[in-house]
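Recap from last week: sequence in, structure out.
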Amino acid sequence: MKTVMRCMVVVATGLILSGWNGVVAADPAPTKITIPDMDCASCAKKVGGKVAEVKGVGKVEYNVQARTLTVCPKAGEAMSPKALWEAVVAAKLDPSKLEGPGGVFTTKPKE
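Predicted structure tokens:
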């Protein structure tokens, strides 16, 4: 029993010293981009590759059937809605809607 208590004290001390405050960070909020002309896997991979190059992007998933990209940021980073929109346009496609933590856009965001 004493060994268990010592282990608990050591673990608790380690957590406190490492700065753990008992709060577990939530997954960063994703951004969903609707792209009406994204009608095949090849197009989806092309635009997904361009979007993946945007600063702060951690993961890009596509759904050809729904014609959407879901873009997740890297932990602790933010993605620019404007940069995401521009990346889709750079892939020669036109987004119709971008929904994320920065708001909902149906035209190119200013920032």
